[in-house]
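Figure-free illustration: sequence to structure, shown twice.
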Amino acid sequence: MGIRRLFVANRGEIAVRIVRAAHALGIEAVQAYSEADADMLAVKLADASVCVGPPQAAKSYLNIEALIAAAKETGCDAVHPGYGFLAENAGFAEAVEAAGLIFVGPSADTIRRMGDKAAAREAAIAAGVPVVPGSDGRVGTADEAAAAAEKIGYPVMIKAAAGGGGRGIRIAETPEDLRRLAPQARSEAQAAFGDGGLYLERVIRDARHIEVQILGDGTRAVHCYERECSLQRRRQKVWEEAPAACLDTATRETLCASAVRLAEAVNYRGAGTLEYLYDAKTGEFFFIEMNTRIQVEHPVTEMVTGIDLVAEMIRVAGGAPLSMRQEDISLDGHAIEVRINAEDPANSFMPFPGLIGTLEVPEGDGIRFDAMIYEGYQIPPFYDSLLGKLIVHAPTREAAIAKMAETLARLKIEGAKTTIPLHAALAADSAVRAGEFHTQFLEPWLETNPLTAD
């Protein structure tokens, strides 16, 4: 292993996950933290920690100069970016390597090519992977966007070229919508990613969101099958499953093979995810974008394949080849993950930064809780509301849903309102149990299924 001391340039539950993966590999972990995060769990678990700035993310977790200085001052030889913040910032990857450190992820060139959603479409087309009809790359002026939209056909989805996590996205039903919403999307993208570039795609109604997990070492790539993430609120995933029960075997094989083809075409290194829209009525799938980082929902893949994705990406970053061949990877059962956010579901999901009181986490076979909280932890108000992820694994989807319902009933987080009631209601819903949902399912469902506070 080429890495001895790993700098964790992130926070929250993914920082905890990275610290634990590093320790499992015998690597020391140094945790970055802002002034608001001095008490976070990853700081307590890491071998060392260092403050990188004030609470505002722009001055700490997005401050490239401060992060690299901290990594070098603490004797680290590698940097793991986690997800969000600078994880898909090619400039950060370049700066890390220019400082003589290892970036745990793909090369800056790959991030620039595949992290830019418009450029990734072009790479997918070149690799023979079907894409949603859309603009030819980025759209600059309002007139250029209008011309592209007329060619694509309304409704169109306005998307951030450097985006991810559902940010910088709007749907325009008409030319008037496009001119009104594009500036909003551009401003949101600029604030979230430091890049206000936009592109357009045709809206596919009632599509299902399927994504394929891949691993690569720069030469060879494998897939770890797919996940379904169709249950989304405001384009933020709330419930994720592996595998996608809506796919038959032949479609699964074709879809996953296309992901490997694209990953190898760009010499991908590390863990990445290729996202697709799947039209269950026609059986067609379309590549929409690639996330050049570990995903929030990676645990469901780990549960059904037995592969430690975070450890594998650290090994590969250290110079090792992939430790597995495609024929070594198989599916075992069904896994579901739900995101436990500090939000009040009875009050429009308003953030609820409280003080964690009694915390009771169920344990048992097939139950996993990836979290950043502990009793007495004060949730800071400066960042996203994700507290943790509850993951269950069972032999079948039906059994996994039953286990999720039972486990949610035993999960107690006092001191904060959380999204536990949402997930309990979804686990009891007949349509969810039957797998009859799509990316536009959840918001209308919430209007007819009002939730009460946890």
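We now fold a second protein in the same way, so the two outputs can be compared directly.
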Amino acid sequence: MPFVLALVCIGAALFAGGRWLNVSYAFFAAYVVVQYIVLGTAWNILGGYTGYVNFGITAFFALGAYSSVVLYKLVPHLPLPVMMLVGGIVAGLVGLGTGYLTLRLRGVFFSIATLALAVVVQTLMTNWDFVGGARGAYVLRPRVAPLIGGDYIQYLFLLMLALCVVVLATARAIEHSALGYGFAAIRDDETAAEASGVPTLRLKLIATALSGGFMGMAGAPLPFYVTYLDPASGFSLNYAVNAIAMPLIGGTSSWMGPVVGAILVGGLQEYIRVTISSAVNVLVAGVLLVMFVIIAPEGIVGLFRRRR
């Protein structure tokens, strides 16, 4: 509970500081960084805690985004938090089903299966006219934020901040629970874990559903953030590369790793996007990833732990 209260206080302080500065761009940039904290932490629940590398991030993220587009067309005045919840449930169920079919595979075979999932989902969305198909679909963003007033982007940032608190609290709770110890046993030696009576398939399904659900919730506000969603933006390579690179750079053994990685890489990318070009964002993540794999294979958090 003190950890959650601390996160809420930090989030409230960030939001209050942004309102005090009253600079729209600050909310745009901070939204992206917080979104990557959520995505990186969600990926880390499966990839870091259990050791199963998921390359299908864009499938889960885009399922959340396209769920919002569908709901926007069917029920235009539905509150965005409800859309996020629906997007999370859809992505979580897809994660559960995909996990049930693929989690008997291990190593690179599982990773290839998740990559295939992203290709299948993208093909389906590209050919689904109701959500705009290859043309994409426009979403009109309300001019005034509900409940808090002011610019709508502030409302989006607040929702992403709230989701970030939930995701970080969940990740930390997993680390200090029997579930987390089961995940660690799978990551260290799955055969030995099975022999010791650990229900490996059940635990992996929980990890896949949680990870996919949180990614879907992170993607749900995207159509309102960019006001337009097409396959190129929903399935952007940036999300896949950053969601993997940030936990690896920060460290995959702790909830803190994705936070450190997202702030470092996301902050640097936002700075370069404004001063140079957004075209080098993936390059920045790639170069940093190679550097940290060589210099600090356990990430920044692991580096500090080793020096203690």
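Summary for the second example: DSSP finds 15 helices and two strands in the chain.
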